[in-house]
Amino acid sequence: MITFKYYITTPLYYVNAKAHIGHAYTNIATDVLARWHRLKGEDVFFLTGTDEHGKKVETSAEKAKKDPQKFVDEISKKFKDVWKTLNISYGSFIRTTDSKHKKAVYEVLRRMQDRGDIYKGVYEGWYCTPCESYWTETQLKEDKCPSCGRSVEKLKEESYFFKLSKYQKPLLELYKNNPGFISPEHRKQEIINRVKEGLRDLSITRTSFDWGIKYPGDDKHIVYVWVDALTNYISALGFPDSNNYKKYWPADVHILGKEISWFHAVIWPAMLLSIGEKPPKKLFIHGWLTIDGKKMSKSVGNVIDPVEMSKKYSSDSLRYFLLREIPFGHDGDFSEKTLKEKINNELVADLGNLVNRTLTMTEKFKGKLEGKDELSKEFNLKKIEGFIDNYEFHHALDEIWNFIRAANRYINDKEPWKLEGKELANVLYNLLESLRIISILVSSFMPDTSIKMNKQLGVKTGSLKDCKFGKLSGKPKKGDLLFQKIKT
Ligand code: MSP
Hints:
Elements: E1 5-14, H1 21-39, E2 43-51, H2 55-63, H3 68-85, E3 92-95, H4 99-114, E4 118-128, E5 133-135, E6 153-162, H5 168-177, E7 182-183, H6 185-196, E8 202-203, E9 205-206, E10 222-223, H7 225-230, H8 232-235, H9 243-248, E11 253-257, H10 261-275, E12 283-286, E13 289-291, E14 294-295, H11 306-313, H12 315-325, E15 332-334, H13 336-364, H14 381-389, H15 393-414, H16 421-442, H17 447-457
Parallel strand pairs: 1-2, 1-11, 2-3, 7-12, 11-12, 13-15
Antiparallel strand pairs: 4-5, 4-6, 6-8, 9-10, 13-14
Helix pairs in contact: 5-6, 11-12, 13-15, 13-16, 14-15, 15-16, 16-17
The site of 5'-O-[(L-methionyl)-sulphamoyl]adenosine has 19 residues, from strand 1, helix 1, helix 7 and strand 11.
């Protein structure tokens, strides 16, 4: 049997502050995909990590009165702790301060130079430190950074440049020949329109700060943080000649937020074309979360801590909510009020209730649990798979919930409390089989819940091929309620 590989990545998180719900959103969505592909039996390489160089991090370390390396070590560890709380099943964690990463960056620069794609010049422009980006006068929006709206400062420095302009045509060809390269469609159009307007060569070194990878052969230059960070997607695999690199590259998908689409859709593939490596197969660009309708920001004081939220409501509830509530690829709103409603109306009333009712009846039943399939028609695995393959998590969950609700209706229709013997066994068999399958279907979204369900059902962890009737084994045993009703 052929085992397909699946290489999926998140962006690397800046370590200038701790993780918030926006970061958690990217990682949860990526985790769902990684887990889903494991359920399919694929060989998954799931990469996340931290972006640790640049002026922004240097300034944060200074403010904290810490040596930058010590500072990044601490924050990077905190990111790992958050991912543990949220059950993010990454297989590899790359830090841009790792020595293997630095080696890969040198190799990338060497190849770009060999190609004749790097030259020395002078850069003058408006710099946004939070975004670590240079902007031209015309790109500014009301004199502020067009990406984040914050103040910019004028900088003039000697710099090495990458001949990005040379790659305008090859990039447009890449987009044309690979229609699925950038999703969603409207994001792809934005990128194509901007690339068609023309590309300026990219300044790839800085001299205004120290904290970063030194440019080979010219120590006062530091490699631009984006050239450094983007290389993580191959350095983590051991680029250029490791077996992992040969096996997993090109990435099947990079997941990222909309504000960093330009770097991933233009600069990254141009770098890869320059060094003679394949571009990733796909970029999926998600939207941004607002909080109760407002932009999340420290100054407004509405930054949501995902760890606090999961301690309050469970990490599974948070994971479920984010993917059920917001169509992936669109902007969406996080509201604690809606989170509580979803927990009560869907997790407690539908799924929790189904498990509780079924296990209570099963515990009282002493006969053999057997019957004939009356419920598998209520779910369509192909449809669910199709939605997930299209990154439509909310539709996939809708479909799974239709099945859960159908099973609850089945109890109401059959009135098992009035039945006994073979008739009762048949109803319980159908419910237990449905729950076993539901547990597999929800496991990527809510891994803890799935484990709890399997324990109560007395079954082993299943994979997608077990999503069919006729596989029930083990001894069910009722446990604690899966979800607690929340006071609203
Ligand atoms: N370090 C760069 C990425 C380098 S990748 C080679 C970076 N880091 S970040 O920490 O600022 O952002 C990382 C991810 O968090 C992005 O995908 C971004 O979209 C996501 N989010 C940050 N705030 C967000 C929201 N408010 N809502 C949703 N996601 C957001 O960019």
